[in-house]
Amino acid sequence: MKKNLIGTVFAMTMALMVFAGCNVPDQNTPAGFLYTVQAETFTAERNRLASLTPPTATFTATATATTTPTPTVTPTETLVPTPTWVRHSAGAADVFVLYYHDVADNADQDPYYQWESPFNVTTAEFEQQVRTLYELGYTSITISQLIKVLYDGGELPPRPVMFTFDSSKMGQYVNAYPILKKYGMVGNLFLYSNLVDEKNSILASHVNEMMADGWEIGSCGYDGSPDPAHYGREIGMSKVDLEEMFGVPIEAFAYSGGIMDGGGEMVSRVSKALYKIAFTKVTTIHQTANIMFMLGRYEINKGLSYGDFFEMLPWKEGVVSEDTMTWALPSPTRDPIEYTQTREAYDAAMGTPPAP
Fold this sequence. Notes:
Layout: H1 2-22, H2 31-52, E1 86-88, E2 92-94, E3 96-100, E4 102-103, E5 120-121, H3 123-135, E6 139-140, H4 143-152, E7 154-156, E8 160-166, H5 171-182, E9 188-192, H6 204-212, E10 216-221, H7 231-246, E11 252-254, H8 265-272, E12 277-279, E13 286-288, E14 298-299, H9 306-312, H10 322-325, H11 336-350
Parallel strand pairs: 3-8, 3-14, 4-5, 6-8, 8-9, 9-10, 11-12
Antiparallel strand pairs: 1-7, 2-13
């Protein structure tokens, strides 16, 4: 019934729209009637369509979530702590003092080089020893640092080592100096004053260069004469000569060859010559006021194995790299012709038949 009614209204509406559109209204119909019907019909239809069509969804803006970036954490650099220096009271300190004569491989590096001499430590041996000490945390010290601690007290690094070199050989400048510098170490030269600037010996300009890099110097004598008649020259004159030559006080003396005279005269003269300390080659690290003029050193000669050197060390804790432990140590060999001639001469003299 309802559908029929709606259809009737719709048909009437369409008819009225046609009539209105053609401007041919019924002459008996009031002028405003058609407009009223038309408007009502449109309104009803619009309402009907509205009831059938779902409302358009209203858009509600949703805020986009803002991502807060997580700050990048920069790792803090790991700092290797500097070893705390140790305070020593006056009169005593444990210091590992090494005593070298020369560091050379051949006569080009030192004109006085002799292959058979135990005093010519090879550059490979020397560097292996320096590397070992470096990796175990040893720190080099100088003459003046030791003097200050023994006389006044003071601080030293935890594992102090002194590199000392006696004589005035070229190898000390050509080899020992650059190798120590490579590992941040310094040394101490004990010079024969009469040999500086002499042919085939170290030059004063070399010594000055080394001193500018932190090296210090002492006296090893005038020319190394063991004659007691020359003690005054060896002990006193050498000190004066070196002070005039280099403009620094000479406060340490090293007995030639590390050997004192049996009667103690040299020790007495050194103490009276205004030296403050003197070195022997007695193997001890305990440097005390009781032996101020007989301080200990470890003599290092050619051919010392890594194992034997390591056994000398007073402080062994730590790690030595495989590279250092297996450092190539060339074996010095004589010229084969010279060796043959020497052997033949020896065999002839001894009446030994030559080897087949």
